[in-house]
Write a structure and sequence with these properties.
298 residues; alpha/beta; ten-stranded mixed beta sheet; 14 helices
Length: 298
């Protein structure tokens, strides 16, 4: 199964200057700005290095690529010329795209068969999550130019797993949460929005020996013992591999993600994203009870 990742133009390239023209002067001025600068190359954006590493997985692969990256952009096809000029300059193998001329792009995630959508637009991200697809809002983050192994880290509850347990914690407190996890230790948790994406990564890993796999994954969770057992048994039940698991018991995650060397980290809670983004590229997953007020949930 091919891994398909959809990405917005502002996640792939730095378009802050162009976006400022749009915000201050409107659509016509923005279009004129992009046409006048269509041969001016765009600088890499917050997810550029991740995309480059994803596409590098195809090197040495069989005739059928392991990974495809598609562009979902709110630009028009006319203003998108600058984006494709930059894609060609950086030799990114991105051939498919949807330009929506300002309309929401998340409706094309399913059509392209993408398992992950990365955008800087929270509304598009929430729309994709509502349709059952993994998605995250890419935040301005620290990033390093590293051409090594692709390393992806995930939070647990409301990202890899459902938010059922997190709801108990939020509504009834830590003691009730711990008691529930002890009682349900042998009951696998339902999958969260990123389960299928992790499964697609696992499929690529499974084709390699553990020592030379091109992808390394980590679970970085605020859980601690005894709530760890249910996590381990859930992944075992799914038959999905996680290379590293960090049970931090509420400690800030940033330093641990730096030590892991994450190319991106996904978390549903803004406080953990704020800690992580100081050290590694970070995607906020606006899903579950921690984001209920934003989503308008009662």
């Amino acid at each position: 199964m091919k891994l398909v990742v959809a990405i917005s133009s502002r996640a792939l390239f730095q378009l802050d200057e162009s976006h400022a023209v749009f915000e201050s002067q409107g659509v016509a001025a923005y279009c004129a700005h992009q046409r006048e600068n269509e041969h001016v190359l765009l600088e890499p954006g917050p997810a550029f290095n991740l995309v480059r590493k994803l596409l590098a997985l195809n090197k040495g692969a069989p005739a059928s690529p392991l990974v495809e990256v598609v562009l979902l952009s709110r630009n028009s096809a006319d203003t998108g010329i600058r984006i494709f000029n930059s894609i060609e300059h950086y030799q990114l193998d991105i051939k498919r795209a949807a330009f929506s001329s300002g309309a929401s792009t998340h409706r094309y995630v399913e059509a392209f068969g993408a398992q992950l959508f990365l955008s800087t637009n929270p509304d598009d991200v929430r729309g994709s999550l509502a349709q059952g697809y993994a998605a995250a809002t890419i935040l301005p983050s620290h990033r390093e130019d590293d051409s090594g192994q692709l390393r992806i880290a995930f939070d647990g509850d409301a990202v890899l797993f459902s938010d059922d347990s997190e709801r108990i914690y939020k509504q009834l407190g830590l003691d009730a949460f711990a008691r529930n996890e002890r009682q349900a230790a042998r009951d696998p948790m339902p999958g969260g929005p990123f389960k299928n994406f992790l499964g697609a990564l696992h499929a690529i890993q499974a084709a390699h020996d553990t020592d030379d796999a091109p992808i390394r994954t980590a679970l970085v969770t605020a859980r601690s013992a005894p709530a760890h057992e249910r996590v381990i048994r859930t992944l075992r039940a799914w038959d999905i591999r996680i290379d590293e698991a960090l049970f931090l018991g509420g400690m800030p995650k940033g330093a641990f993600l730096k030590a892991f060397g994450a190319d991106i980290f996904f978390d549903d809670q803004t406080m953990h994203c704020d800690s992580a983004r100081e050290f590694v590229p970070t995607g906020h997953v606006p899903y579950g009870i921690a984001n209920a007020a934003i989503a308008g949930e009662n």
